[in-house]
Amino acid sequence: MTYVYADQTAVLGPLATYAEPHAYDLCAEHSERLSAPRGWEVLRLARDPAAEGPSSDDLLALADAVREAGRPVAPLRVAPAEETGRETTRRGHLRVLSSD
Q1: Which burial class, exposed, middle or buried, applies to 40 when counting CB atoms under 10 A from its CB (0-12, 13-18, 19+)?
Q2: Domain co-membership, 59 together with 98
Q3: Is 58 in the same domain as 100?
Q4: How far apart, in whole angstroms, are the C-alpha atoms of residue 44 and residue 37?
Q5: In whole angstroms, what is the distance from residue 83 CA to residue 48 CA?
C-alpha cells in the first residue's frame, strides 16, 4: 500500500519486492478492510494470476542455496610441528593456523 497525497489516493497492490520507505505491506485481512480518509479514493490493483507461482528470482535464489549447500567442505587437518605458526588450511574466508 502506498499513498499519493497530491491525488488523495491510496493504492493497494501486490507485496513489494524491495524496501520502499513510503510503501507498507499489509496482510490479506487488513488490505480487505482498508479505508481511506473522507474524500480519498482507494485503488485496488488486481493481482496477476501468472505471478502467483514462484518467480525466476525465487527459483534462482533456491538454486544458489542448493549449490552452496552441495559444495564440498575441505577437511581440517592438524599441522605437523614443523609448520608452527603457518596457515594449514582455508575454509571460505577463514584460515586455520597451527597453535605451536
Answers
A1: middle
A2: yes
A3: yes
A4: 15
A5: 62
